């Protein structure tokens, strides 16, 4: 493994180890600040010329030629129904990579990059009023920042077909048949639950690592070993209150929890992930979104736990 790669791994895990999140801040035609995880961003460009592609879903503004690659482009303000647009055309393209794909989002202006302590990120308002596209809210230097759930935005604008096919429910081996799912994305939670249901498994859904850790510790303190209830924990990495790296580390530190099987499930792309998994003590890693691959890993875990 090259030193350059090790340095980049250290850069990512250093933030994770301190339960911090790096955010690219941008605006959508108004004074309101929005944020997205820096590690989902490949680059930021002045708005390029857009062209049409016949296979693009109607929600897309077009495609852009980014370093010889045709990248589908969404106008983010229009995609989330943001009403604060001042009438000017968005001036910048944020090129992102997540969920095994590259796409661009048009924004009015790019502000800066900030590091936020994850515990300072609060859950978004209750669903309704157009807040379903948020994963959290926070403040930095007195300004409110809304964290965009770009996974949900993309899923709604370009629904993807499942690669799952038909599944047969897993045989009952006498072990636990419930999985704890921890993810701040509504889309991800529903997708994982669907896979588990087709495998004949139950799911408990939580939206951040702090909730999950409190839940598991409460079970243990109440006399119910979490390993007896849950066959495994499937956790996202980027979440408000406590990220998946820190959740995994805390599980491994707690004698009552350390026997839990932890699978990290993230939209972040790249070759860094296996090193991160090993560093925090997770058992497995699956990048989003391949329902078939997730189902295979879950089935392998259930089979191994017999």
Strands, count = 16
Alpha carbon gap, first and last residue: 36 Å
> Could you give the order of the helices and strands?
HEEEEEEHEEEEEHEHEHHEHEHEH
Query: What's the number of helices?
Result: 9
Overall residue-averaged pLDDT value = 84
Any key phrases for this structure?
globular; alpha/beta; five-stranded mixed beta sheet
Q: Can you characterise this structure?
A:
The chain is of the alpha/beta class. Helices cover 29% and strands 31% of the residues. It has 9 helices and 16 strands. Strands 3-7-8-6-5-4 form a 6-stranded mixed β-sheet. α1 packs across α8 (273-280), α4 crosses α9 (291-304) and α5 packs parallel to α7 (244-253). The two termini are 36 Å apart.
Describe the secondary structure blueprint for this structure.
Layout: H1 3-17, E1 20-27, E2 33-37, E3 41-46, E4 50-51, E5 62-66, E6 69-75, H2 76-79, E7 92-98, E8 101-107, E9 109-117, E10 134-140, E11 143-148, H3 150-157, E12 178-182, H4 186-198, E13 202-206, H5 209-221, H6 226-229, E14 230-235, H7 244-253, E15 262-266, H8 273-280, E16 284-287, H9 291-304
Parallel strand pairs: 2-11, 6-8, 12-13, 12-14, 14-15, 15-16
Antiparallel strand pairs: 1-2, 1-9, 3-7, 4-5, 5-6, 7-8, 10-11
